[in-house]
UniProtKB/TrEMBL annotation:
Compositional bias ranges of the Basic and acidic residues kind: 371-385
Cited InterPro entries: GDSL (IPR001087), SGNH_hydro_sf (IPR036514)
Name recorded for this polypeptide: Uncharacterized protein
Keywords (A to Z) from UniProt: Membrane, Transmembrane, Transmembrane helix
Gene3D superfamilies, alphabetized: SGNH hydrolase (3.40.50.1110)
SUPFAM superfamilies documented for this protein: SGNH hydrolase
Transmembrane segments: 7-25
Region annotation (Disordered) ranges: 371-395
Length: 395
């Protein structure tokens, strides 16, 4: 009898500690890490972008069928909201639900620009709400909301576009493609200005670089075009996109840009895995410890079988799978176009660090802008006032 009671007690204690380790501890960790960041007032994340950000939860312009039905959650936007302990996530991002970004692009920065450069009809139904349209929808719902409530709240915006845009430009003449990228970035920042003006105060924007799309497993499956030429074109365009994005971001004066170096992050994940596989270690010891992801080429969901899968290693047992992988946490990619949820979560941690440290990429521009405003104010003062000010300060 006594042994049974003691056994019960031990089992009970065991369950208690499991609950503590599995449930209470993670909560404590999250709360202690970012408690101060968004405390005090209500906070929300407003999300603009494509399928990388689209949570599949819609308030306005709800799609007939959910294009994100097969997405792997959490996405980086959901994980970022959780990290920042935000009260709500307003999703304006839109996706095509397709894995073929050439035929069915996700939301673009500017549909008109892409359609113009690629000779397509901008009113084609395959084009989703672009950044401009997403911002209009957001402003419309804000206006309705503002009349009802005037809550003090902190807003963080996420703006992630570009993968579909660049995908559309791949294979064009260099000059046209570059023009397309330049115009798209111009639109992107014009829309950020629209948001800043509507908010009437400095905004906070998480803005990721785009990853090198040639690493996405589906890239090599494009039906048309000679692969090496396409690859070269894509690498150049991604570089161009990120350079133009940085250049424009550096000069933005509507608020803080938290620039998320997604491309660098992705390369690090790939490098780590390759060094481990080859068995070399660098001075940091990278390559010795197990990589974050052991599988960085094949996605968890098998790619549709097509004729050529060059340059994949066809001897790889993994590329024969027809079922989803058994351990998604080892996979960098979820499907041919998207990162796995573990990758999304890691990316969100990087973003949360930027936001919590107020890591501002355009700090110089903001300071200069402030100074200019101050000087302008001085100049606008009546000369008499200015003199009085100076005599006051001297006495
Ligand atoms: C989700 O996956 C199923 C099975 O692969 C597929 O038939 C369906 O079209 C997919 N839905 C979307 C929205 O991609
Ligand atoms: C479309 O392209 C042409 C020539 O490249 C240019 O003149 C025109 O302004 C463009 N239109 C739009 C809406 O961007
Ligand atoms: C909200 O108020 C503004 C002006 O205060 C007005 O123009 C707008 O129509 C209002 N919106 C709604 C939905 O009532
Ligand atoms: C994968 O497919 C190739 C070619 O069809 C075949 O030779 C190989 O044995 C398969 N590997 C596995 C693990 O099934
Ligand atoms: C972040 O830093 C910028 C630039 O110094 C500043 O203008 C802004 O108020 C800061 N934002 C927060 C939330 O502290």
């Amino acid at each position: 009898m006594r042994t049974i009671n003691r056994l019960h007690a031990i089992v009970f204690l065991g369950i208690c500690s499991l609950v503590y380790v599995g449930w209470v501890l993670p909560t404590l960790r999250v709360q202690s890490r970012f408690q101060k960041v968004l405390s005090g007032s209500r906070s929300r994340l407003v999300v603009f972008g494509d399928s990388y950000s689209d949570t599949g939860v819609y308030k306005v312009a709800v799609p007939k069928t959910n294009p994100q039905a097969n997405a792997s959650h959490p996405l980086w936007t959901e994980a970022l909201c959780a990290e920042l302990l935000c009260d709500s996530l307003d999703n304006y991002a839109r996706s095509s639900g397709s894995l073929d970004f050439k035929a069915h692009p996700d939301a673009l920065v500017d549909t008109d620009v892409v359609a113009n450069v690629t000779n397509q009809n901008p009113s084609n139904a395959k084009f989703k709400a672009d950044f401009g349209m997403q911002v209009q929808r957001w402003i419309n719902s804000e206006q309705q909301r503002l009349n009802r409530t005037a809550v003090q709240e902190r807003t963080v915006f996420t703006v992630f576009f570009g993968i579909s845009d660049v995908w559309q430009f791949v294979g064009l003449e260099d000059k046209e493609a570059h023009e397309g990228v330049r115009q798209s970035i111009r639109t992107l920042f014009a829309q950020l200005d629209v948001i800043a003006q509507f908010m009437r105060k400095p905004i906070q924007v998480v803005l990721p670089h785009i990853p090198d799309i040639t690493f996405l497993p589906a890239f090599s499956q494009q039906p048309e075009g000679p692969f090496p030429t396409y690859q070269r074109s894509a690498v150049f365009l991604v570089e161009k996109w990120n350079t133009e994005l940085e250049r424009a971001a550096r000069e933005f004066v509507g608020g803080s840009i938290h620039l998320l170096s997604m491309n660098k992050w992705l390369l690090e994940m790939l490098r780590e895995q390759q060094m481990y596989t080859i068995g070399i270690a660098d001075e940091n010891g990278d390559g010795k410890r197990a990589p974050t992801f052991t599988e960085t080429t094949n996605p968890c969901l098998p790619l549709p079988v097509t004729g050529a899968q060059y340059p994949f290693d066809m001897d790889d047992a993994d590329s024969n799978r027809t079922e989803p992988c058994t351990d998604p946490s080892q996979y960098l990619f979820w499907d041919g176009m998207h990162l796995s949820s573990k990758a999304h979560r890691l990316l969100a941690l990087e973003a949360a660090d930027l936001v919590s440290h107020n890591d501002t990429f355009n700090l110089n521009a903001l300071r200069k802008h402030e100074q200019e405003l101050a000087e302008k104010k001085d100049k606008d003062k009546k000369p008499g006032e200015a003199e009085m000010d100076s005599t006051n300060s001297e006495s």
